[in-house]
Amino acid sequence: MEQNWIDQLPEEARACAGITNDFDSAERTCPACLTVFSAGPTHCPSCKLFIGG
Ligand SMILES: [Zn+2]
Predict the structure, then answer these.
(1) How far is the CA of 33 from the centre of ligand 1 (A)?
(2) Do 5 and 14 meet the contact criterion of CB atoms below 8 Å apart?
(3) Which domain holds residue 53?
(4) Ligand 1 centroid to 26 CA: how many Å?
(5) In total, how many domains does the chain have?
(6) Tens-place pLDDT, residues 1-45
(7) How far apart are CA 47 and CA 41, in angstroms?
């Protein structure tokens, strides 16, 4: 599992490593419908799920 080492890193380091699943990344993936959208909106544009800020 190549991502094991990434889980050990602090959030800032993950961002530098190009991980895109964190809330601080350039893209977000809705955990409910898996829609990928640009960071900024706090609600999923597809299912309106509150993602958080
Ligand atoms: Zn959604």
Answers:
(1) 4
(2) no
(3) 1-53
(4) 17
(5) 1
(6) 566 776 787 777 766 655 445 555 678 889 999 999 887 768 899
(7) 12
